[in-house]
Amino acid sequence: MRLSVRTKLFGSFGVVIALMVVLGGAAIVELGSVASRADYLGTNSLPSIDKISDVRADTANYRRYQNRLIFATPEETPKFLHDMGPYATDATQVLTAYAAGANGGADTRLWRATKTEWARYLRDTAGSAQRSRPAIGRGRLRSSRRVPTSSRS
């Protein structure tokens, strides 16, 4: 069968249009899949990231005040002790509240480890700035800086 050039052109354009319609339909179906993944991330991951950010800020501020306490004058010490307390409380509360949002598995295991390490850090560094003050007075700055700025990994 012999087809004219016109028929061949119309046929090829028809095939291209049909392929575009199929491709467009597949893209729309995939967009629905992407939307469901975005909903999952927004529901499960973002609240966790927000809480992690809060804990990170509170612990950084708490440690900043610990560092300030080392070099504080006796007049500044009560103010710094008063100001740093809420940061430890807030970090502990956010870590406790995170339990409800932990998704099990690795998330729960990491949450427990973090909460344990934070409690250990608070226990180990309680009063460390006051203990460091005599060392500073005797010129032993290295030993006095070690306790409040060390990190456990």
Task: Report the structural category.
Answer: mainly alpha
Question: Main β-sheet: number of strands, strand sense, barrel status?
Answer: none
* Mean pLDDT reading: 80
Query: Could you state the oligomeric state of the chains shown?
Result: single chain
Q: Helical proportion?
A: over 70%
Number of strands: 0
Question: Count of helices?
Answer: 5
What general form does the structure show? rod-shaped
The rounded distance between the terminal residues' Cα atoms is: 78 Å
What fraction of residues sit in β-strands?
under 5%
Radius of gyration: 30 Å
Give the helices and strands as they follow along the chain: HHHHH
| Uncertain segments | 135-141, 143-153
Walk me through what this model shows:
Mean pLDDT is 80; it is low at 135-141 and 143-153. The chain has helices spanning 5-71, 77-97, 106-125, 128-137, 141-149. Helices cover 83% and strands 0% of the residues. The radius of gyration is 30 Å and the shape is rod-shaped. The longest helix has 67 residues, at 5-71. α1 (5-71) packs across α4 and α1 packs across α5. The chain contains 5 helices and no strands. It has 153 residues and is an all-alpha fold.
List keywords for this structure.
153 residues; disordered C terminus; mainly alpha; 5 helices
Short overview:
The chain is mainly α and 153 residues long. Helix content is 83%, strand content 0%.
SSE topology sketch:
Elements: H1 5-71, H2 77-97, H3 106-125, H4 128-137, H5 141-149
Helix pairs in contact: 1-2, 1-4, 1-5, 2-3, 4-5
